[in-house]
Amino acid sequence: MRWLRRLLIVAALGVALWQGLLALPAAWNPWAPLDVREAPNLLTRFKLARLQHDPGLCEQALATSALRYSHQADSPAQADCPLHDVLRVQGSAVGLSSSFLASCPLAVAFALFEVHGLQPAAQSVLGQAVVRVDHLGSFACRTVYGRPGARLSQHASANALDIAGFGLADGRRITVLQDWGKDTDAGRFLQAVHQGACGSFNTVLGPQYNAAHRNHFHVDMGGWAICR
């Protein structure tokens, strides 16, 4: 029902805008490009979804972010897991344990998460900024859990990232493996980060999902809306 209400709102706004009956700020205009700097609202999910099949629109959204990235050449069509329109994300206002490959929508979602999920959680719970994100990788040409015959993982198209921990401005390191579920500032920070990620990515899976995710948050921009 929540998604239906959002679709009805978007449809009504779209008709009004199309007929010239309404002028809206870009943040509330469903057809305006997503601006990563703007606070998320009811249209953010819709705008993120529009990026999936519109590389030009995705580039406009990326231009509003602080991400440092480079475009990668498409892989050969005969590759087991061919990659198209993929970026190498090298960092932003935060450093990375290493650069990672990302679809454009994943890169935009990561930028949105950093600004509106990660850093607000760090300031609210810990009183300081995150300066590094540690991850376990993004691209892996495999099926879900590596099971023979299963559907391809979102990692197979560089549309997913596994986040393992965070480095803080004071030099501390917080990891999902060591700090998740604890009644500590680090544990509360991870809970807030998990919830913040659910506002930017389509799928977020953490330790409470299953044992395979005990040491990381899996985030992706696939077709499933899951926050676990």
The overall average pLDDT, rounded, is 91
The CATH topology of the largest domain is: Muramoyl-pentapeptide Carboxypeptidase, domain 2
| Estimated structural class | alpha+beta
- Share in helix: 25-40%
Kindly provide the radius of gyration, computed on alpha-carbon positions and rounded to a whole number of angstroms.
18 Å
Q: Span between N and C termini?
A: 20 Å
What is the tally of helical segments?
6
Q: In total, how many domains does the architecture comprise?
A: 2
CATH class of the largest domain: Alpha Beta
Query: What's the total count of β strands?
Result: 10
Morphology: globular
Q: What is the N-to-C succession of helices and strands?
A: HHHEEEEHEEEHHEEE
Main sheet summary: 7 strands, mixed
Strand content: 15-25%
CATH architecture of the largest domain: 2-Layer Sandwich
- Indicate the low-confidence ranges by residue numbers: none
Q: What brief labels describe this structure?
A:
228 residues, Muramoyl-pentapeptide Carboxypeptidase, domain 2, 2 domains, 32% helix, seven-stranded mixed beta sheet, alpha+beta, three-stranded antiparallel beta sheet, 20% strand
What does this molecule look like?
The protein is α+β, with helices and mostly antiparallel strands. Helices cover 32% and strands 20% of the residues. The protein is built from six helices and ten strands; from the N terminus they run H-H-H-E-E-E-E-H-E-E-E-H-H-E-E-E. The strands form two sheets. Strands 3, 5, 6, 7, 8, 9 and 10 form a seven-stranded mixed β-sheet that branches. Strand 6 (160-168) and strand 7 (173-175) form a beta hairpin. The chain is globular and about 55 Å long. The two termini are 20 Å apart.
